[in-house]
Amino acid sequence: MKKTLSAFLFLILAFTFVNIFTLTTETVSAQADIDEDVVVYMLGRDDCGFCKKQHEWLQEEDIRYEYLNIVTDEEAAQLFAAIAEKHDATKATPMTIIGERIIVGWNSPLTTGESIKAAIHVPPEEGPP
Prior knowledge:
Elements: H1 2-22, E1 40-44, H2 49-60, E2 65-69, H3 74-86, E3 95-98, E4 101-104, H4 109-120
Parallel strand pairs: 1-2
Antiparallel strand pairs: 1-3, 3-4
């Protein structure tokens, strides 16, 4: 029984870990300068500890962003639900939107932070010649 419970808990932890990282693409080294034309949106809640950590990191990195509170702003809540549905993503905060890219959750500067930087530096798709 104890082995079964341990195996079950291991599978739950492994599944959770995989889900967090499948919503982000491979981390790429970001350039030092932040593209001023890119708009970063962070949907979150004031009572979310991970939102607070991401907020602090964005300020430390001097990344401009717009914070949309999904609790106090009904339009932000509707946008949050629509984006989660469109991308078949978990409704977890923070949810960071950079162009068509979404990043759900916050882990650390070395993981989620690098994914945000990489998304900021993705060159826009070129139109037809």
